[in-house]
């Protein structure tokens, strides 16, 4: 499996489990979020790859390689709206990924972390960080 396949699978899960059901304006890696209106809530999703290592030995085709990473979901809520709706949305993100295993490509999600919120321009921002491991065989 390639980095592109892993990224696509994570973005697809976010879209189907969170963005579409929540009618959430979402920007993905290398999309310009400058068009986000200051009166709307929105999200930015990034897939950040970490270390890759050989997880098992064997002959060609039977060796397992594991890559770690995080999916970072930045949630933006207009200032003055309070944090209740944003925390509820963070819970939706956590539920969509916590302990989930995808078969193809092989991705295992660990327990997401919800960070403290802070002001970012006209929005209140909070991150949900979702650790994952993906496996490939070569």
Fold topology:
Layout: H1 3-19, E1 25-28, E2 42-54, E3 64-78, H2 84-97, E4 101-102, E5 107-109, E6 113-114, E7 118-120, E8 123-137
Parallel strand pairs: 1-2
Antiparallel strand pairs: 2-3, 3-8, 4-5, 5-8, 6-8, 7-8
Helix pairs in contact: 1-2
Notes on the structure:
- The chain has 138 residues and is α+β, with helices and mostly antiparallel strands.
- Helix content is 22%, strand content 41%.
- The chain is built from two helices and eight strands; from the N terminus they run αβββαβββββ.
- Strands 1, 2, 3, 4, 5, 6, 7 and 8 form an eight-stranded mixed β-sheet that branches.
- Helix 1 crosses helix 2.
- The chain starts with a helix and ends with a strand.
- The mean pLDDT is 93.
Please sum up the structure shown.
The chain has 2 helices and 8 strands; from the N terminus they run H-E-E-E-H-E-E-E-E-E. It is an alpha+beta fold and 138 residues long.
């Amino acid at each position: 499996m390639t980095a592109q396949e892993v990224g696509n699978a994570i973005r697809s899960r976010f879209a189907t489990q969170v963005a579409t059901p929540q009618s959430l304006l979402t920007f993905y890696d290398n999309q310009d979020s400058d068009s986000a209106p200051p009166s709307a809530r929105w999200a930015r999703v990034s897939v950040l790859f970490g270390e890759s290592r050989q997880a098992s030995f064997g002959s060609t085709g039977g060796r397992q390689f594991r890559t770690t990473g995080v999916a970072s979901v930045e949630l933006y809520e207009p200032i003055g709206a309070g944090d209740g709706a944003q925390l509820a949305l963070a819970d939706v993100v956590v539920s969509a990924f916590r302990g989930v295993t995808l078969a193809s490509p092989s991705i295992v999600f660990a327990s997401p972390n919800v960070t403290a919120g802070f002001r970012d321009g006209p929005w209140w921002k909070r991150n949900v960080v979702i650790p994952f491991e993906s496996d490939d065989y070569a």
